[in-house]
Each structure stands twice: as C-alpha cells, then as structure tokens.
Amino acid sequence: MYSEGNGGNEEGLHELTQDSEHVRVRLKKLETLRAKGIDPFGARFERTHLSKEIIDDFSSLEGSTVKIAGRIMAMRTHGKATFADIMDLSGRIQLYAKVDSLGEDAYELFTSLDIGDIIGVIGKVFRTRRGEVSIEIDEFTLLCKSLRPLPEKWHGLVDVDLRYRHRHLDLIVNPDVRRVFLQRTAIIKAIREFLDSRGYIEVETSSLHPIPGGASARPFITHHNALDMDLYMRIALELHLKRLIVGGLEKVYEIGRVYRNEGISTKHNPEFTMLELYEAYADYTDMMNIAENLIHHVAVKVLGAPVVKCGGMEIDLTPPWPRLTMVDAVTKYTGVDFTKIETDEDALSAADSLGVEIAGKDSSRGAVLAEIYDKLVEPRLMTPTFIIDYPIEVSPLARRKKDDPRYTYRFELIICGREMANAFSELNDPIDQRKRFAAQVSLRDKGDEEAHMMDEDFLFALEHGMPPTGGMGIGIDRLVMLITNQESIRDVILFPTMRPRA
C-alpha cells in the first residue's frame, strides 16, 4: 500500500521558474498529488538500515522487513512489475514493486514517480534470479518531489563550472565526488586522533584581526560598524596560537579557515583550511618527525596503506623522508651553487642566467635564492622531501641558525611538486622579532602588499617570554588532494570561490 501524507498548500509554487518542459511536467504531477491529498514534501521517516548494510548483511537479513529511504536514480517497468534503484549515503540498492503487492492505485502512483524523487520504503529483503540483493516493496512514502530533472544519466555532470556551482548535483550523480568528500572528513578525523593522542589541545581563535599576520599574503578587508574600524580576515592562525604558548598552553593546534586575497589556481583558493600546531620546548626537527608520522598515519587510516597516487606515480609515504637544504636543492637541480654567491648583485646575475625574473620583487640574495627555488626546484620534487634552512629574508618569524645567521631553522615539506607543510623553530627573541617586523614594514612602504605589518600585540606577548617552540602549518586541502589523488583544489573544497554568473 501507499501511505499518504496530510497534503499541502500551493503558496510559493508560482515562484519556481518554469524554464523547461521537464519542470512543467513535474509541476503538473505536483498538482495531481496535492489534489489527491498526498503531501509531496513528506515528514520524518524512520529508517532501520542503509543500503550498504543490507547488501553486506544479506545472509542475516534475507526475508526480513526493513525500512530504507533514498533518492530514485533509475526505474525500469516490465508489465505489472517495476524495478527501481535508490541511493542513500552508503550507496545504491534495487527496489522491486509489483501491482499484486501494492494494489492498482499505489502501483500506478509508484510508476509515476520521477528520477530524483526521494522516497521511504518498507519491504522484504531478497535476491533476484540474477543474484542482485533487492527489496520487495510492501509500502512506500513520497518524502520529497524533485521538481527538476537530474543531469542526463549517460553523461552525468562533467562540466566543471556546473559541478562547482551546483555541488549538490555533483554529489548526486558522481559517486567518486561523494567518495572524495567522505574521505576528507575521515582525513580530518584522523588528524585530530593523531594530535589528541599526543597531548595536543585543540583550540579556536578569532577570524577577524586588527592586523593581518602570520604569513606573507594580501588580506581581505572588512568593516565593523559598531566599532567603526576596519578589520582583516585572518591569513594565518600563527600569532594567536603563539600567544597561547606564552600563556602556558604548551601543545596547541587549530584546524580553521583562513582567507587570502590572491589569485585562483589548481593549488589556490581564496579561502582554505589550515592545520597549525605549536609545541613548547620543541624545534623544527620535532616538527619534521610529526609531519611525516602524521601524514603516514592519515594515509594508512584512510586508504589502508601508506601509498598514494600522484600524476601517474605511486608515492610511498613511509618515514623517514629525506632532508635537503634549500642551497643544496638549488645546486642539485640548477647547478648554481649559492655557497659561492655572496652579494645581491651576484644573486641577481644567477637568476638572470636561469631565466628567473626578479624585477619588482625583493632583490636581496636570500630572496633571490628562494625565488629560484620556487620556480625551478619545488615543482620537480615528487617524493616527500623536507627543504630546510630558508633564508632569513623570507622567514620573518623563524629563529636564526647559529652557524649561519643568513638562514633560519625553517622547512617546507614538498610532495608531488606541492608545498604540504611549512614549519619553524619559532623566533622567541622579541628584540629580533621587532627588527624583522620593521624590515617587513619597509617592504610594505615600497609597495609589497604581502609583507607583514608591525604587530605590537604579538610583540607585547613575546616580551613576557615564550619558551623555545616548534610550530607547523599544513594545508588541509592540499593534503586531501594528495590522499584522494585530485589535481585541483576545487575538487576537494565543497563550494570553491566562483565568479557570479551573469
């Protein structure tokens, strides 16, 4: 039988754009349902099983009555019997409807349902002669009438612009997309599991900052009406988390959204998710150990093995991973030895010989070294590699190296040609930090909109004493790209930033 709802009203029906014959036909069906007293937008339905549970546990459920709900994805009518597929979060399962079991009226109503309609079903579990686990319907309830058709089933939704704009359709018709986002959730859960088990405390810090800091990036600016002041959407989590280290929270982490007013590419979205963690009495070597063990743990937890695919390669994430200074990496991949380059002028000449453009950028020796590395070395690093000892010019928050103060205790982790993590032995000398900020302010005065500002609140905290600290940031979206083998960051963000359609 078919269980009827309480009907409904037609307020707002005229607001739906009737832009195709498909929509007009479905609106007509909607009117017919309401005329019969059937609510096309039903209420609560209590399920007993998901489709995958029924398929996996068939041997114990065969012949049992189950309650299942989902979206109709296919229908095939053969005389007085109809097969349909419905999809729920766990997957798809076949339904079997017979006029003898449902009666003429209910069977006719069932066959009038459309692809995309959401129904609740009560029925018995059985296996067809072809061996497919199915549910023979005893009773069904319309839970939601779909007023628009799904994308044509043989082609699915392949237009990337439409997929990103209408992610709900992408999730419905592309099972691999749904798998990626379920894996994203599992990745974040595994990260928390790893850090919580090591005594880290998860915290939340503010998203609106009076000064953008913690990274070199152009911020988004907004205005607070009540305070009549401009504020910045945070570009990093770092400086607030370091204040917590000063306050005695010795091991902290945050997984949060950050915002950078920069370009869009396969590796960049204006808003993205970061993990940042800080540990008192640690240094950047401790952060390297955490990075390789955390990512290894996540891969094993989510994939079952420490092997990921990238660009047709299989990459083994089993620690330990090689550690290479930036100077040695540039020598290895370009042949230019920066141990023999002492002046800014010689560095610029080296960049020019390699075809790396520096005009309009910081032309100091260290900044030029970093630019050559970014352009010519990083994209070639496929297997996990720690690039260590960054120049001080591009590391205003990192501790200087004792044996060569031109460099810092900083590393970036590169996998598959992409930066996965950035970490320091944190600078805890407030006098040195003030000088570094002043140098950054000088760059801003020369037009560098990504340089740091003078952050007096952070300096005030640092002047109370911060213990030696190791800190690290990992881009969650890029980690998800790695684990799920996706080439674009937009494929791992549910709603990437898009230009509005005209």
Question: Care to describe what's here?
Answer:
It is built from 16 helices and 18 strands. It has 502 residues and is an alpha+beta fold. A hairpin with a 4-residue loop joins β8 and β9 (229-233). α7 packs across α8 (175-196). It folds into two domains: 13-150, Nucleic acid-binding proteins (OB fold (Dihydrolipoamide Acetyltransferase, E2P)); 173-322 and 383-491, BirA Bifunctional Protein, domain 2 (2-Layer Sandwich), CATH 3.30.930.10.
Instruction: State the strand order across the main sheet.
Output: 6-10-11-18-17-16-15-14
Task: Give the overall shape, derived from the CA principal axes.
Answer: elongated
Number of helical segments with 4 or more residues: 16
Helix content: 25-40%
* Topology-level CATH name of the largest domain: BirA Bifunctional Protein, domain 2
